[in-house]
Amino acid sequence: MKFDLKMILLGLVAMSTFTSKGKGPGGGGGQLRVPKDGARMTLDELRALAAQVGFADPDLAAAVAMAESGGFAGAIGDNGQSIGLWQIHMPSHPSYDKQKLFDPSYNASAAKDISQAGTTWQPWTTYRTGAYRRYMPAATPAIAADAPPPAQLEPPPPATSSSAEAVAEVVDVAPYDDEEPA
Predict the structure, then answer these.
(1) Which of 77, 105, 100, 71 minimizes the C-alpha distance to 89?
(2) Is 166 within a domain?
(3) What is the pLDDT along the chain (182 residues), one digit of tens a residue?
(4) Would 115 be classed as within a structural domain?
(5) Which of 31, 77, 111, 167, by CA, is between 20 and 30 Å from 89?
(6) What is the residue range of 31's domain?
(7) Do 67 and 135 contact (CB within 8 A), yes or no?
(8) Residue 82: beta bridge partners?
């Protein structure tokens, strides 16, 4: 099944989480690959999932997941090292089953464990950079105590030829199969 590269490109541009160095969404190294069927969870679905597994702040948890994976449960980032909705980084968390991390509930539970029920989000690049904030409800008051104030956030890089190359790099990614590329 083929997915719409134009829609993925628009989503990635809207998220603006890749950098001029060509890093993928979530700020990690490499590209974000999405499943062939392009199945994507909405922000409301991510909030419901976060509430179901018991995050302290489901809005914040969902915002981090959306910034990390674009809502794609089958997302693979950081050159194959980060998996699923919350982009669980396998080298940092080898105790989690890589294949099970494609399951939204298992991935959410792993993120809940790693974030101490959603009380510390420092391991997530999109949290440290503030990229998750665009997915937060407008009426949400102060986020978490360890969130950097906006003055400490780096502005997004200007549109340069390297930014355009980063977009081209992401668009050229083929949908993955069950096997890693050779």
Answers:
(1) 77
(2) no
(3) 344 444 343 343 333 333 223 333 444 445 666 655 667 999 999 999 999 999 999 999 999 999 999 999 999 999 999 999 999 999 999 999 999 999 999 999 999 999 999 999 999 999 999 999 999 998 555 454 455 544 444 444 444 444 334 333 343 333 434 444 44
(4) yes
(5) 167
(6) 5-142
(7) yes
(8) 77, 89
In a domain, 175, yes or no: no
Query: Helices in 16-152 by DSSP H: which ranges?
Result: 43-53, 58-69, 104-114, 125-128
- Residues 6+ away with beta carbon under 8 Å from 157: 19, 20, 163
> What gap in Å lies between CA 82 and CA 92, rounded to an integer?
10
Rounded to two decimals, the pTM is 0.62
DSSP-derived secondary structure letter, 27: S
Query: Which CATH number is 137's domain given?
Result: 1.10.530
User: What is the number of structural domains in the chain?
Assistant: 1
